[in-house]
Design a protein that fits this description.
- With 364 residues, the chain is an alpha/beta fold.
- The protein has two domains: 4-142 and 325-362, Nucleotidyltransferase, domain 5; 146-319, 2-Layer Sandwich (Nucleotidyltransferase, domain 5).
- It has helices at residues 42-50, 58-84, 116-123, 133-137, 146-154, 191-201, 210-213, 219-226, 229-232, 246-252, 259-281, 298-308, 326-339, 347-350, and strands spanning 4-11, 17-25, 30-39, 91-104, 109-113, 127-129, 161-166, 169-175, 182-188, 287-291, 312-315, 360-362.
- The strands form two sheets. Strands 1, 2, 3, 4, 5, 6 and 12 form a seven-stranded mixed beta sheet that branches. The chain has a five-stranded mixed beta sheet with strand order 9-8-7-10-11, with helices on both faces.
- α5 (146-154) crosses α13 (326-339).
- 49% of the residues are buried.
Length: 364
Amino acid sequence: MSRALFIGLMSGTSLDGADSVIVELDGKHCQVVRQQFTPYPADLRQQLLTLHHPTTNELEVTAVTSNRLSHLYADNINQLLHQAGLHPSHITAIGCHGQTIRHRPELGFTLQIFNPALLVELTGIAVISDFRSRDLAAGGHGAPLVPAFHHAAFADSTIHRVVLNIGGIANLTDLPPDSPVTGFDTGPGNMLMDAWIEHHQGKPYDADGTWAASGTVIPALLEQLLEEPFFAQAAPKSTGRDTFNMAWLQKKLHRKYQPADVQRTLLELTAASIATAVTQNCINVDELYVCGGGAYNSVLLERLRQLLLPVTIRLSDELGLAINSVEAAAFAWLARQALHGLPGNLPAVTGARGPRILGAVYAA
């Protein structure tokens, strides 16, 4: 198949901003041409956090926020094109995930917001969006969707690999040679750590895990956190802010703990839940590749190395995709799948009744 340029745009559960990439795709290969990150203004981030729960006049607020997101996405994409020296006519389509504000697969819905029609008008490029709904309609969770791309981009015929994305939520993809691909959300990635440090220090994240490293794990608290039923559920499974949030954490804090110790315990929760998921579900894994914002947290990575010995843990950069470009590239790939009439989900991962073509097309 001939190669074509696509843009992928992803804004995840960390709510830090929008990542976009221009990628050259031909169905088998994925070459990143350029990437761009646009942070969310503080007031937009707060509005998105508010929309995760019922609020006054939320239909109007959601619509207005969707339009604002679309303008931010368009600015991101137009800067990306300018930096790459490309014209909108060079791009086949944009695959845009939108911003998740509710994820309730047990109720049969998930909601990602932005205005795809407006994004077409602002960029002059076709947009493929709403990737999760069809999988949900087919009985799946609509998530995680990136394992299909991980399989296309990272699978090896002889090496048993696992790809671990640590965003707000962590998810893994198991890629054993000559065996079915599996994958699922493991639980919190950066989400709780980010919320806790923002609450106590006003910082958006714990840079390199420095604050967590100054504290000590609280065993009793860790045990309570790990009692959350989600961790014991069998895959397919997915989760988000609807389950793991500050209110959930505050209910577990029956004593007054030192804030740094809580932060260290939250890091241990992320590491322990990931390690358990890998150990129980990815038998005889050779290599684990990490991507997403959590890959910048060296304290977390070192803890994972300790818990998963002798598994080799590396960054996705070594497979040709930078840690901050993998998810955006996945939605470019999903856009290509949609335009070619090819499935974008993996039923063994999402729980859907079968493969489905994902995404709605807004032509330019």
